[in-house]
Amino acid sequence: MKKIIKYTLATLAFAAANNANAQNLNSGYFLDGFAYSHEINPAKDYDRKVYFSVPVLPGNINFGLRGNLHLTDILHKNPNGNGLTTYLNPNISYADAMKGFSTRNTLMSDLRFDLVSVGFHTKNAFHTIGIGIRSTEGADIPYTFFDVTKQLENKNYSISDLNVQMMAWAELSYGYSRNINEAWRIGGKAKILLGGAYASMKMDQLNLDLTGVDKWTVTAHANVEAGVKGLTWGEKEIKEYTEAYRKKHPGTPATYEQINFDNIDVKNSGLNGGGIAFDLGAEWDMGKQGILEGMKLSASLLDLGFIKWNKVALAHNNGEDFVFDGFHHIKVENGPGVPFDEQADDLGDRFSNLYSLKDGGTTSKTKGIGATLNIGCEYALPSYNKLKFGLLSTTRIHGKYTWNEERISANVSPLKWLEGGINLGVGTLGASFGWIVNIHPRGFNFFIGGDNVMGKLSKQGIPLKSKSNIAMGINFPIGKSNK
Amino acid sequence: MAGVLTATLCMSCIDNSYDLNDIDMTIGNNTNLTLPKCSTDSILLKNIMHLKQDDVIKIVPFGDGEIYVVKQDGEADIKPFKIDEISVSKPQKSTFDTKTDVSEFYTNSQKPAKRKVITIDPEIPGMAPITIPDETYIYEIDPAKANMKIDEAKANNISKDIISIDHIKCKEEITVTLHLSTDGFPTHINKIHLDNLSIILPEEIEVTSCYFVSDGEKTNAVSIDPGHIKLIEGKDKARTPDNIQLTITFQSAHNGKNFNFDPEKHTASLGGMFEVVGEFRLMTEEMDQALMQKAIDNEIARWNDKQKIENIIKFNETHDLRIFGDAVIPSAIHFKGEAAFNKDIVVKYISGEILHNVDEIKPIKLDNLPDFLQEDEVKLDLANPMIFIRAKSNLPATATTSITLYNDLNPEKKYAANDLIVNGYNKETKYYLANNKETKYLPTEDADAEFRQVENIGNLIIKVPKEVNIEVAPVRVKFEDLEIGNEHEYTVQVDYDVYAPLSFNDDFYLIYKGKDLGWNLDDDIAKINAKGITAKALISSNLPEELDFTLIPVDANNEEIKALEVSSAVVKANAEKQPITITLKPAKGHTINDVLAGKNGVKKLDGIQYRAVIKRAEDDKKGNAGQVWQGNTNIILTDIQLTIEGPITYDAN
Fold this sequence. Notes:
A: 19-stranded antiparallel sheet, B: mainly beta, 6-stranded antiparallel sheet
């Protein structure tokens, strides 16, 4: 039980420690002076001739957490008034503990850090070149996991599809956009992806049937993949089967190997794969089309690509069912029967077989990096075109970590060098409130904002809610606004 | 500016009460958790009891199976004993030297034949020659004088076991030689008769043969009777008056005034005397006439005249030759005797009685008691305890003894079996002492044992003593012709068993206590708490009595921890899948964690004692013995369901 808690918290800490939001700052989608709108839609234009960022200053750094699993779901105020405690504390009622959990509990964190970003206009087009680092992490934990850990009782539990995954890569991109007529603008971006690290842990099936009065059955299928160059599982731990186990399972060898995560070794680390991805976008100015003045429609499909991980170390358990049908014919005081110790040893070995991971060799894996579909609609008041309203639908398509939100925003540009906006999003991960301030006087641009207000943080600065996002950047625009 | 703005935005949102460094990691479960059913195999009573080979309770074969019995063997350490050889040194030679006077004479007829005419000295006037008549002279032997007292011989240091000797038999025949001789006869007397010659001797000596040699002729005794050997009956024939050598042979003797045994001093003595009875007889006609005349003449020649005349006149009147003096007819015969034993009297067989003290017998130690017999409350109310006595002796006779039993708890109360007869000749004797004659549970090997009732002998062990003392009275043996000596070792072996099938009366009460200590609970265990633990099971047992089972949690000092309450369970006699429930809960004001961690004034749990009381249920009391516990008595627990009752917590801090 203690290990379960440790691993649960470690998983959450893993996600929280990388609390960046790879989502682009959607709050800036409808701001003409937001230099990085091309990362949300490659068809987006920029209102200055050129902008560039320098590596020593963050041109665009975006941290974010997203999900419906919050730190407050795990850590509660201790009912005894002393600090915090986990949801596992029996003083936290079952109802209180479980009300924060959903059928599926996801926690995603993403990081985008653009080291170099340059945008410039040519005669008809806007070009962007970027070098950045991105990572994405996710944990997807089913409700029953929390149920079984909170209240283990004689029930049937199915903890299927417990996933933890992370991926980190470097990205070299070139973007191009141009007007194809007066009303339409299209853009695209090609990205070369350099794989850094990939890891995945999947518990395909963890079923605990504790309802039987005669037996408990546990089924677990676990797989671990680690795509890090130079990674080996290291020296295996040699474990001995007990005599009791071998007696009950004739033909069993005396020992078996299992992976000891303490022995994992990484030598000659470096890039472990590569891939490509494309961003595609389009924008339709319905005003210029003569349909509705001030109305624009836009759409983009981002990160349509993959990374092939060259060497992925595999590990898995043997997937055999673990059955505990009680201890029978227990030998008591030198009487007939089987000694309890012997039966307990056999049980221990069989349980060890359930969770011990064995080296599955290496393979290559091709993994998508998760695509994002944005559809936007903006409307600038004809009477006061410095105020725009926008509606942005974003759908993240990434397997277990797929989500969707609709975000409505109000954006204002009271001055040529100042603009901002507020927005409200609702979606599969709940509601969120976003904001942005973008200051871009001549030669300098600083923006800060977030699609999710950070909300409260722990004393150590960890967001209490997993809807936290902050992005900021300093860039250097050159040239006049094209507006 | 950006940093200041960011910091401001963030700092403003920090919830200082949400400190990740202050997390109480107590975890737990609020509901119950029941483990799958478990079961035991047969829990054999003998294993629970930890019966060892030398335990007082044993499982012995009986019929087709086995039964429990209180059984303790013992063997009386009666050392073999010997009756030392009895040796009486041969008595010193004894003699007598006496004179036997003429007691009677007579002429042989009214007209005695004139055997000889003796011419009287012609110078004596008027004296005609005289005729010597046929006369007989009797010299009766006076036994008061003709006897040889046996120099009393003693045998000392006779075995103390001998309390009486009736009869002895010597290793070899003893010969007593009696030399009888006479002297002083004038030369004309060359024949003598030993009429009615007998020997009076100690009647205890059992003479086997007797003869005498005279004139070179061996003559057997006419009759041999106790204390009296008749050598010559009636008139004897004429013999040369020379030595007579009498040989008396004997090999046995019996107790009497001359041969007696002193049981106090452990001595035996042989005394008495040999007396000669009979008479010498001389007859004139068998004497040498010429020499006799010459002797007479010599006598007369020594007379003065007057006296001559007077003596001759007297002779004519009396015909008593003795007036001529001892030279003609001795007035007394010089009679000598000498008796000598040829060897020491070495006794080989005795008849009599032995009283052999049995050394102190080691008590039946009941110190190898299983725990359940060691409690003060135990009442071993056995149905019919038996004490088997097996005795064997190689004595050539039966012996009698008594056995007394008592225990160290009440040594005043004794249980005795008297007049137990122990067979001799290595034939085993078996008894069993019991309150009632046993009809069913006599061990096969002792089925032929003879019953001796000892009332209420069960009380001897109803409160189990440390030992049962056994006293075996001295073994009394009356015997005949018991061979004695170093080469003969006599044994009396007495084995005994306490043998009592575990079949109890209503009042029996056994307490079995066990313990499992030194758990030294891991620190992780000390972080656990639970509301309680409930164990349910179905119990089956062929124990014919009710069993009341209690668990007692104890600390490292083996002292009960009262902060933890454990319920007891009662298993009915011959239970068949009887449901039982044992619960373990903290006492009011405490938690199980107090006990596991040893806190809040509660000592840490370090083990458990279990206490089982085996007794008869009140409803089952019938005033008689219950079933005998069978060797396969066992308990089986099935459908064991262990439920840990929530909230269950673990302090993972």
